[in-house]
Specification:
Elements lengths: L2 H13 L2 H8 L3 H15 L4 E4 L2 E4 L1 H29 L3 E7 L4 H14 L3 E7 L2 H9 L5 E6 L8 E9 L1 E6 L19 E5 L2 H11 L6 E6 L2 H9 L5 E4 H5 L3 H4 L2 E5 L8 E8 L6 H14 L1
Parallel strand pairs: 3-4, 3-5, 8-9
Antiparallel strand pairs: 1-2, 5-12, 6-12, 7-10, 7-11
Helix pairs in contact: 1-2, 1-3, 1-4, 2-3, 5-11
């Protein structure tokens, strides 16, 4: 039994004619008939009834048809996968990302380069504006940014990676840790360190407005500094939940994330952006699939 025999069998069953199959594959009718007969002998079953009116599947033929289609589909899928792998065995990727996603992008890159060792990956880091500029100028093949839907720029193709909501992140010893949701009225004399991002800065300003004892001590893109201050209990921070989920386990084990109820209606998204009207390469598509897998 071979793939060609199965293909002739499926084509003949679908067309109801050995003649049509012979035309499709550019061979003679006797060659098709002989191939089907050999398949029947190997399976020890009659697949077709033959008459002057043509051919028709037998009961065994219908059963065999189901398996033959599955086998041919699997073979096609295998060929497509191997073809895709061959197309992306070599090349270069330049990825621009916001600092909060560096850990996830780095982990994905390590996995990706293990599978495709001859692909060179370069990582650029910057805030949302810097990432968009790098993609727009062609300095990066794709970028990862954290923005609301309303902030989209028509110069890019936007693919949502994950939807997120704002949370307060506190040390596990903080009195706030017992809250299931937080509002501005629960914040008293709190010191905040926040990520330099318009979405986060707007939330922070609104939350601390009601208490003069609250203050923003540091605004930075240095996620290491933010993690260090929160872990030590020196401050609290505001982040989107998907950013927190990509942080190192050591940090996550020492903190508690508390939803900010008011902002559930204003979700933020992690986006993969590429330059509009520029075809996304097979390398970029494959890399993105690996990143999705790491998010799960």
């Amino acid at each position: 039994m071979n793939i060609i025999q199965l293909q002739y069998f499926v084509d003949s069953a679908e067309s109801g004619s050995f003649t049509e199959t012979s035309k499709k594959h550019g061979i003679t009718v006797p060659a098709v008939s002989q191939s089907i007969s050999q398949l029947e002998n190997e399976l020890e079953a009659t697949l077709f009834t033959r008459s002057k009116k043509g051919i028709a599947l037998t009961q065994d033929g219908f059963k065999a048809m189901k398996y033959a289609r599955t086998i041919l589909t699997n073979v096609r899928n295998m060929r497509n996968e191997l073809s895709k792998s061959n197309r992306i065995n070599t090349g270069n990727i330049v990825i621009a990302t916001i600092p909060g996603m560096v850990s996830l992008v780095t982990d994905t890159t390590i996995t990706f380069m293990g599978i495709y060792p001859h692909i060179n990956v370069q990582l650029l880091e910057g805030d949302n504006t810097a990432v968009m500029n790098q993609v727009m100028k062609g300095e990066a093949d794709m970028g990862f940014v954290s923005l609301s839907r309303e902030s989209q720029d028509d110069s890019f193709t936007w693919e949502p990676v994950i939807r997120g909501e704002a949370v307060i992140v506190v040390n596990k010893q903080s009195p706030l840790r017992f809250l299931t949701a937080i509002t501005s009225s629960e914040l008293h004399n709190e010191v905040l360190v926040i990520y330099k991002d318009a979405y986060i800065e707007r939330i922070a300003a609104e939350l601390i407005a009601g208490d003069s004892g609250n203050r923003i001590a540091l605004t930075t893109n240095n996620t290491q500094a933010i993690m260090q201050m929160v872990s030590r209990g020196n401050a609290i921070t505001i982040a989107t939940d998907y950013i927190v989920n990509t942080m190192p386990e050591k940090f996550k084990n020492g903190v508690v994330s508390i939803p900010i109820g008011k902002y559930k209606k204003y979700p933020n998204y992690l986006w993969r952006i590429t330059k509009k009207d520029v075809e996304v390469s097979a390398i970029i598509k494959e890399y993105t699939q690996h990143l999705y897998a790491n998010l799960e």
